[in-house]
Amino acid sequence: MRYRILKQEGRAKRAELETVHGTVQTPLFMNVGTVAAIKGAVATSDLEQIKTQVELSNTYHLHVRPGDKIIRQLGGLHKFMSWDRPILTDSGGFQVFSLAGLRKIKEEGVYFRSHIDGRKIFMGPEESMQIQSNLGSTIAMAFDECAPSRADRSYVQASVDRTARWLERCKKEMARLNSLEDTINREQLLFGINQGAIYPDIRIEHAKRISEMELDGYAVGGLAVGETHEEMYHILDQVVPFLPKDKPAYLMGVGTPANILEGVERGIDFFDCVYPTRNGRHGHLYTNQGKINLFNAKYELDDRPIEEGCGCPACRRYSRAYIRHLLKAKEMLGMRLCVLHNLYFYNTMMEEIRDALDEGRFAEYKKRKLTGINPLDQ
Prior knowledge:
Zn(2+) binds at residues 310, 312, 315, 341. Pfam families: TGT. Pathway: tRNA modification; tRNA-queuosine biosynthesis. It contains 14 helices and 16 strands. It has helices spanning 44-49, 59-64, 68-73, 77-81, 93-98, 125-135, 153-178, 200-211, 229-239, 257-265, 275-281, 320-328, 332-358, 362-371; strands spanning 2-9, 12-19, 22-26, 28-32, 55-58, 87-90, 103-105, 110-113, 120-123, 139-141, 189-194, 217-220, 249-251, 270-272, 284-285, 292-293. Strand 13, helix 10 (257-265) and strand 14 form a beta-alpha-beta unit. The two termini are 34 Å apart. The mean pLDDT is 95.
């Protein structure tokens, strides 16, 4: 791995990351394909057309179905989904939060009940690394607990301490797996995750602790899970300065266009979020004038594209009226076109951010971009 900062404007970074699956330009948005597919009938060939640099899949979900050992037998996740660019796999740690009713946390790891069929699953740091090694992703995330943002301080401290111990086990197991001759991707990278809910002092101490471990990259997790945007930005202001400057920084599960702009300003390189795909499937579309809802009756006779001048597959060919008709008729093509537009919007915004940083005008770009976004969408 080689990470190079090309330009800086304040704390905002313009960088590039070389990986075994190609070089990516940051800041970037990772398109979320939880089960090795983007929801909304989006193919990997589509991702190439809409400027996707990194695809993100989920360790827990692929372990449950079809099974990471099956994917390994088929040559790894890149071959399985026919994608030759970087893939980041989330560790399954977020499911410790989202499947709270189906799991029990112990020092050795987490005991789950599958959300598919109820069968028992155990996942600890070693198991998460083994699953991600079977998948052969470019970047593997460390196994952690994402504690609720409003959790009691004593619970958060104990959780963070355990997450730090788990990270040491992840690093050791990843090194072992990458040393094996039959490992699919022996250049697999490991990113650690900072946790601590909304307690800045716990966050900072954890950031210092994991920074000493010389990992390939560092994420800030456990945000956008119930706290306010102001609290999120405050945590980033406090924590990011204590993460290594010469490694990529990743803000997990965030967020809106405004969240991304604020994150970039605070030194974040990587983002991911289900918003563009989820909103697209419900007819909610991002434009430079704010979000629009194609289910609104005013678009019934609107023969304009979703956004004038947009180069996405939907805007190049179809009208708002036609796509609205597809959505109303529950035709899958409607969802597909909306998801493609939203992902193209996000990926293009990241391209614009990189250009602005290259040219030393990010602050001006951010101000202008936020002006066009409805305050309710920020």
